Amino acid sequence: MRIFPAAGAPHVDGVICFGDSDWWYHNRxxxxxxxxxxxxxxxxVLYVNSIGVRMPQLREGGMFLRRIRxxxxxxxxxxxxxxxxxxxxxxxxxxxxxxxxxxxPVLVQQVRQAARRLGIHHPLVWVACPTAATVVDxxxxxxxxxxxxxxxxxxxxxxxxxxxxxDRLMKKRADVTLFCSSYVMETEKAQCRNPMFVxxxxxxxxxxxxxxxxxxxxxxxxxxxxxxxxxRIGFVGSIDSHTFDAGLFNAVVRQLPEVEFVLVGGCSLPxxxxxxxxxxxxxxxxxxxxxxxxxxxxxxxxxxxxxDWIRACNPVKLKEYLAVGRPVVTTFxxxxxxxxxxxxxxxxxxxxxxxxxxxxxxxxxxxxxxxxVRRETWRAKGRLLLAELTxxxxxxxxxxxxxxxxxxxxxxxxxxxxxxxxxxGVAQPARRPDWLTAHPxxxxxxxxxxxx
Length: 452
Prior knowledge:
Distance between the termini: 39 Å
Largest sheet: 8 strands, mixed
Strand content: 5-15%
Radius of gyration: 22 Å
Order of helices and strands: EHEHEEHEEHEHEHHEHEEHEHHEEHHHHH
Strand order of the largest sheet: 3-4-2-1-5-6-7-8
């Protein structure tokens, strides 16, 4: 498929993405980073490391110092080519309402200069960090995408009022607002010009391979687990107070003294929050080892808090767990309706412990779990996004919209009907676009600067 400029539209010659995280800290599981990898197959991408939605808090203890150290290290890298056609930039900016006002002119100048060095003059501006809203139109975008995958107004330490205001502005301004939670999309789609559901993808081959060869991988790489017996119950991810229910976890651990629990990931909870003898915390591990740690467990868990942040979530971890092929036990969040029959949902410590026992005794077959996410790769999600942008008229085209290739038809159903489970089927492969161009902004629509 060859994509031509819509009438009067400037040629999009690259993407500027205001990311929600720091590329140099963790660049695999995040939605924006993976989607930018897909966009980089078609045009230059400038990924701007998060400019922040909150100031680091001293009460975070050691995590506070680690955050500051990571930020300083990122700033020192400047503009760096991280992957083919994909560069990462850490601008100097100050979080918080006052800090943003002070640093906004400097931020715009830094990003504009970095983009020009990459040959980007008419960008598609992608906003994953809502605090970037006030600089969008100063970059003279040819098109704007707003990624609404996290409810940042519910993040502890964030200025909730400011985030809600910026969120409303971005929904009005963006040509497309992307959602990865069908619950959030249904709640907020009336606020958007073009809401679109495209949820997380998964690095399926990596996680499935680890699951099929779990014992072999463990013997080769996982020294911290060599003294840990079976059965093993695993959690992989950040252990933070606003997401991870430490009270629930400790209660479940006490009910299952015969079981070994393995925690993999950074932790911002107070030291000593869990002293149970059947819990092993191996800390953060490189992405290349994450799938092996999942595969080394017999059941994988998500003991989430009950709050608005979790209610709006759709963690990529769930698809990774299923791709590995291990039974999953989780507390409730809205997006679980799309996984009926594939996960066990528990509401308290008693039911959570019972669900773990049940999963150990009568687990689903590995391939049954993998089949649920086999077609939901990041490549499939990227192709669906480009196809949907074309269908919406934001991209003009010479031929019909590309049809998802073999193994990707189910993901197409996810976009078209987010409330349903994927359908089965195989379609014809699509041809790669030669270049992408944006549809002109609707006449009479307001820019962010005009709104301010």
